[in-house]
Amino acid sequence: MKDIGFVTSSDGAHLQCYQDFKAYLDEEIYLPMLGNVDLTGFKAIVVPDFSNQALLQRHARQLNDYLAQGGFLIVFEPNRMDEWLDVVSVQWFSRETEDWKWWMRPSGRMEAYQPEPRHSMAKAIPLADMCWHFFGAFRFAEGATPILNLDNDEGCLMYDQPLAGGGRLIASTIDPHTHHGRRFMPATTRFLNGFYPWLKAEVQGRD
């Protein structure tokens, strides 16, 4: 079994990310051809931000079945996973970053924090490397572990949810791949530099 499959819509940012992190990724999966791929042959599948929405809808059943059969799916926004994941309830709501230019201001900060006790991903990636902006938020999922929350716990920007049958979903409303691939927003590069080594170790630790 392979460790990590990376789904790409052939967006230039996706392709650049795959090249940059291919040491941790086992296969690039072309989204239009997803139906020809046996996802159960991967310990984890990453769906990067700004994937093709129509194609995600078209292949929704396959992605849901992967989760239901014990797969580990990581989805970054804005991919509106609440509209195509039905094996698990994903409650997304509209919520904009209060100040999109906070990072340009002295002592500026995004209105988010890492809950305690910290998730293993948060131990691998500091808060500063998880903050640039976000696209909406999630209602907290019962039984999930929060990774990144809004200050007042109004919503969760990233959580890790185990499913019956052994499946696992990491849902996120941040968009690191698009920014890193286009070489804009250094925090996103730092995030992915921590995320992919963490994910590789995480899936290998499940053996």
Task: Explain the layout of strands and helices.
Blueprint: E1 2-8, H1 12-20, E2 27-30, E3 42-47, H2 53-58, H3 60-68, E4 72-76, E5 92-96, E6 112-113, H4 120-124, E7 135-138, E8 145-150, E9 156-162, E10 168-172, H5 176-181, H6 186-204
Parallel strand pairs: 1-2, 1-3, 3-4, 4-10
Antiparallel strand pairs: 5-7, 6-8, 8-9, 9-10
Structure, described:
- By secondary structure, this protein is of the alpha/beta class.
- The chain is globular and about 50 Å long.
- The chain has one domain (2-204): Rossmann fold.
- Helix content is 26%, strand content 25%.
- The protein has six helices and ten strands, in the order βαββααβββαββββαα.
- The protein starts with a strand and ends with a helix.
